């Protein structure tokens, strides 16, 4: 559990580690990864008054009392891998082999990786998986929370809304879905592919409690949202976060053409210098 200044420094470090892994692999979704950085850092490093946001144990990844994360936004896996390596779920050197044939760190999250709770190979499945996990925890009378992080583009999938309906029906107040609403899909605006309209209204219509975060890169807002989510009564919670694709990289912020590509060598040199300074001085 860290203060806001420490969380900001950690977000810069995780961005840098993930970007280096993608650069070595020669592929990755820069814009998509950067928009979710603060959300994941708040989950893994953030703390509330009485407890951490998410409970886990790197020395015992199968700990019965852990909370669970399903990264439905699978293209952001380099950010998750960078965090898991930093926390000691596996050696940080594994990041150097991300995406290579035979490497442990696959191009999509796999349950075989220490700290990864569910495999994600297709968009739109994460909420269904998380809903099933939350229902199982409820059936066992467990206290575990189940978190899932979704991209806004995958909410075009019907399966997401089937899961949303089921989660409300079973009153799964142990399920918290975080939507990374960065407004970009592929290399264009989400609204030009298939406009999903007001996501907040849709989740509310399906029986969810919605907590709005107008700046998904503000740790005060994020931690406040998680605190509110923990008080939900007999219904699941959607934390809707307005984010910026490419956040933390000046020349890429808000630009759709950086959404699904890694950085070039020249761009990496600039980013390493700037993020490196933040890691040292924040």
Quickly list its features.
single chain; 282 residues; alpha/beta; Rossmann fold; 5-stranded parallel β-sheet; two-stranded antiparallel ribbon; 10 helices; 40% helix; 11% strand
Could you explain the architecture of this structure?
The longest helix has 22 residues, at 4-25. The chain has a 5-stranded parallel sheet with strand order 1-2-3-7-6, sandwiched between helices. The radius of gyration is 18 Å and the shape is globular. The protein is built from 10 helices and 7 strands. The protein has a single domain (4-281), classed as Rossmann fold, CATH 3.40.50. The chain is of the alpha/beta class and 282 residues long. Helices cover 40% and strands 11% of the residues.
SSE diagram, text form:
Blueprint: H1 4-25, H2 30-35, H3 37-45, E1 68-71, H4 77-87, H5 126-139, E2 146-151, H6 158-169, E3 175-181, E4 184-185, E5 188-189, H7 190-194, H8 199-205, E6 209-213, H9 219-229, E7 237-242, H10 265-281
Parallel strand pairs: 1-2, 2-3, 3-7, 6-7
Antiparallel strand pairs: 4-5
CATH architecture identity: 3-Layer(aba) Sandwich
- In CATH, the homologous superfamily goes by the name Thiamin diphosphate (ThDP)-binding fold, Pyr/PP domains
* Integer average pLDDT: 93
In whole angstroms, the N-to-C terminal distance is 17 Å
Largest sheet: 5 strands, parallel
Largest sheet, spatial ordering of strands:
1-2-3-7-6
**Helix content range:** 40-55%
Q: Give Rg in angstroms.
A: 18 Å
Please provide the ordered H/E string of secondary-structure elements. Answer: HHHEHHEHEEEHHEHEH
Share of β-strand residues: 5-15%
Oligomer: single chain
CATH topology: Rossmann fold
Number of helices: 10
Helix- and strand-based class? alpha/beta
Count of discrete domains: 1
Shape: globular
């Amino acid at each position: 559990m860290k203060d806001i200044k420490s969380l900001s420094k950690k977000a810069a470090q995780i961005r840098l580690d993930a970007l280096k892994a993608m650069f070595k692999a020669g592929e990755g979704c820069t814009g998509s990864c950067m928009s979710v950085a603060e959300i994941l850092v708040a989950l893994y490093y953030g703390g509330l008054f009485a407890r951490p946001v998410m409970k886990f144990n790197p020395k015992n990844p199968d700990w019965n009392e852990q909370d669970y994360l399903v990264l439905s936004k699978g293209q952001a896996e380099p950010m998750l891998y960078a965090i898991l390596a930093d926390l000691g779920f596996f050696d940080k050197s594994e990041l150097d082999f991300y995406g290579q044939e035979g490497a442990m760190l696959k191009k999509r999250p796999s349950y075989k990786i220490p700290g990864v709770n569910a495999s994600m190979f297709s968009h739109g499945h994460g909420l269904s998986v998380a809903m099933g996990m939350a229902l199982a925890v409820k059936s066992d009378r467990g206290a575990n929370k189940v978190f899932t992080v979704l991209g806004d583009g995958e909410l075009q999938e019907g399966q997401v809304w089937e899961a949303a309906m089921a989660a409300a029906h079973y009153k799964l107040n142990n399920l918290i879905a975080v939507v990374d609403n960065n407004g970009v899909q592929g290399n264009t605006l989400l609204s030009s592919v298939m406009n999903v309209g007001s996501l907040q209204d849709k989740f509310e219509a399906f029986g969810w409690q919605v907590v709005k975060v107008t700046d998904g890169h503000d740790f005060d807002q994020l931690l406040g949202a998680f605190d509110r989510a923990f008080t939900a009564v007999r219904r699941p919670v959607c934390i809707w976060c307005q984010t910026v694709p490419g956040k933390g990289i000046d020349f890429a912020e808000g630009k759709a053409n950086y959404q699904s590509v890694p950085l070039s060598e020249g761009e990496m040199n600039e980013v390493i210098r700037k993020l490196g300074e933040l890691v040292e001085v924040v």
